[in-house]
C-alpha cells in the first residue's frame, strides 16, 4: 500500500511533528510562452512558486538523448503550484522550463510523475514537438491540449494531430489556460490516460 | 576554499557583487559553502524527488534556537509538511542545496524525509483518489493564497 507514506530517511524520522500528505506530481509542458504558468496558476491553491531546477541540455535532437555524450547541466527557473485534494493527498503541478533550439532532459522534474499535459499554441506548433517526443520516449502518460487563446483555435484539431505527428492513442483536446474548470478538465484527461495504463498493466 | 593566494575578503566581495547583478535571485553562494561543495545526486543514491515531503521533528524544533542560517530556516519552515520544491522556492535556495541540507538535517534527527513510493504514480487507488479530488474542483476559484 503506497497511500500511507512513512519516513524513509534517518533514524529519528518517526518523531515528525505532522504527518505529510502523499504527494502526486503532474507535469505541465510545452514551448516558451504557451501558457504553462497560467495553467498552473488557474488551478493551484497557492500563487505559482518559482524554483531553480537542474536540467540536462543536449546539443542534438531528442531522439538520441541517451547516446549523446555532449550534455551539459543547466539551471533553469521552474514554476509550480499545488492543490490539496484531500488531507492526505496533494497534487503538485510542475511546469517544465521552456527551452529553444536544444534537446533537454527534465528527468529531475518528470521521474515519478503520474502524467503530463503538453500545451500547444497553434500559432507555434513547432515549440511542442520536443515535449511530445520526450513523453513518448519516457513512456509517461500524457495528453496534448491546445490552449485556445481568445477562445479561438486557428487549426482543426485533426490538422494539429497530423502536423505534430501525435499518435492516435494520445488524447488531443482544447482548453483555456485561464479558466479553472477548463484546466481541471484537461488534467482529468491526463489522469484518464494514466488510470487506463495502470489498469492495463495490472490486468496483464 | 580560497585557492591561489586570493584574499578571502576579495572572494566575498566578488561574490556579493555577482549576486547584486542578478536582480531578484537568491543568494546562492553561501548555501553551496554550507554544503561544502556537495551537490545532490553526486553519490550512489539518486536525488530525492522534488515532491518529497519534509517535516520537522520534535527534536529539530527543540534545538531550533541553536541552529543557524539555512538549517534554522529549513527546520522552522517544515513545522508544516512541504515538498522540497516548495521549501526551495520559499527560502529562495537552489533545489539541490535544499536536498543536501535536508538530508544532513535528517541525519541529525532534525527533519523527517518522506520519499514517495516509486510506484505511487502507477497505483490505481492513488490515481482514482486524484481523479475524484480533481473532479471536486469547482469551475472557478477565489483569490490565491501566497503560501500553501
From TrEMBL, chain B:
InterPro entries, per database record: DUF742 (IPR007995)
Entries under Pfam families matching the protein: DUF742 (PF05331)
Acidic residues bias spans: 10-21
Domain of life: Bacteria
Sequence segments annotated as region (Disordered): 1-21
Membrane-spanning segments: none
PANTHER family, per database record: DUF742 DOMAIN-CONTAINING PROTEIN (PTHR36221)
Protein name according to UniProt: DUF742 domain-containing protein
Species of origin: Streptomyces neyagawaensis
Amino acid at each position: 500500500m503506497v497511500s500511507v507514506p512513512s519516513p524513509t530517511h534517518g533514524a529519528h524520522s518517526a518523531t515528525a511533528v505532522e504527518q505529510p500528505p502523499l504527494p502526486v506530481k503532474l507535469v505541465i509542458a510545452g514551448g516558451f510562452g504557451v501558457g504553462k504558468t497560467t495553467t498552473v496558476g488557474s488551478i493551484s491553491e497557492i500563487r505559482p512558486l518559482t524554483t531553480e531546477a537542474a536540467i540536462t541540455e543536449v546539443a542534438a535532437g531528442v531522439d538520441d538523448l541517451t547516446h549523446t555524450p555532449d550534455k551539459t547541466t543547466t539551471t533553469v527557473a521552474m514554476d509550480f503550484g499545488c492543490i490539496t485534494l484531500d488531507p492526505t493527498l496533494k497534487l503538485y503541478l510542475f511546469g517544465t522550463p521552456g527551452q529553444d533550439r536544444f534537446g533537454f532532459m527534465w528527468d529531475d522534474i518528470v521521474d515519478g510523475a503520474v502524467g503530463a499535459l503538453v500545451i500547444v499554441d497553434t500559432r507555434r506548433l513547432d515549440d511542442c514537438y520536443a515535449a511530445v517526443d520526450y513523453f513518448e520516449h519516457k513512456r509517461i502518460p500524457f495528453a496534448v491540449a491546445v490552449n485556445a487563446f481568445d477562445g479561438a483555435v486557428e487549426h482543426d484539431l485533426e490538422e494539429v494531430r497530423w502536423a505534430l505527428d501525435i499518435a492516435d492513442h494520445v488524447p488531443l483536446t482544447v482548453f483555456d489556460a485561464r479558466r479553472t474548470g477548463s484546466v481541471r478538465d484537461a488534467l482529468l484527461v491526463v489522469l484518464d490516460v494514466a488510470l487506463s495504463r495502470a489498469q492495463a498493466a495490472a490486468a496483464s | 576554499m580560497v585557492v591561489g593566494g586570493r584574499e578571502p575578503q576579495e572572494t566575498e566581495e566578488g561574490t556579493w557583487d555577482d549576486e547584486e547583478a542578478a536582480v531578484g535571485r537568491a543568494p546562492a553562494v553561501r548555501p553551496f559553502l554550507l554544503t561544502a561543495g556537495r551537490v545532490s545526486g553526486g553519490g550512489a543514491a539518486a536525488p530525492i524527488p522534488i515532491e518529497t515531503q519534509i517535516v520537522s521533528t520534535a527534536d529539530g524544533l527543540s534545538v531550533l534556537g541553536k541552529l543557524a542560517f539555512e538549517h534554522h530556516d529549513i527546520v522552522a519552515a517544515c513545522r508544516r509538511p512541504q515538498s522540497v520544491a516548495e521549501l526551495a522556492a520559499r527560502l529562495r535556495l537552489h533545489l539541490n542545496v535544499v536536498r543536501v541540507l535536508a538530508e544532513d538535517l535528517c541525519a541529525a534527527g532534525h527533519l523527517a524525509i518522506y520519499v514517495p513510493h516509486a510506484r505511487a504514480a502507477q497505483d490505481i487507488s492513488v490515481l482514482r483518489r486524484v481523479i475524484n479530488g480533481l473532479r471536486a474542483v469547482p469551475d472557478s476559484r477565489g483569490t490565491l493564497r501566497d503560501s500553501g
